[in-house]
Amino acid sequence: MGGPKGGGGDGSSKKPKDPVSAYAFFVKISRDQWMKEGSNPLSFVDHSKKCAELWKEMSASQKMPFVELQMKDKTRYQKEMRSYVPPTGTPAVKLGKAKRMKKAKDPNAPKRGLSAFFWFSHDERAKVKGANPGFGVADVAKVLGRMWVE
């Protein structure tokens, strides 16, 4: 199940392709078999549904060849990741998944101005709370929202 995305092992800077699941191997192989037979070509949706049904009905021993393919692919991925060096200036890498680095926040930066609704809510909150002492925060917010729309 290779493709243009993979390729950490040949010295390129591209991250190795993630390992493929046993189910994904099953879907690909069954699709290839059905395409060879050519008897009744299925749409993508129909093929996915059929594969899901067959996979659920399969016993653990029937799934074993696909699990073995998965284990081989996982070994390939781990081997390629050992030699992979991410390019400098890329986001932090955590467990093989790219994660955006959070921008450092300036503690001295000015805060945003309040919107008109927040100024309105600030002025009216005490009135609503006084008229409805049993209301919680969410209930007061709902009343303020309705008042703002009117």
From TrEMBL:
Domain HMG box: 16-85, 110-150
Cleaved signal peptide residues: none
Predominant cellular place of this UniProt entry's protein: nucleus
CC terms in the record's Gene Ontology section: nucleus
Subcellular location, record wording: Nucleus
Pfam family, one: HMG_box_2
SUPFAM superfamilies (UniProt xref): HMG-box
Sequence segments annotated as region (Disordered): 80-108
DNA-binding region positions on the chain: 16-85, 110-150
Protein name from the UniProt record: High mobility group protein DSP1
Species this protein is from: Orchesella cincta
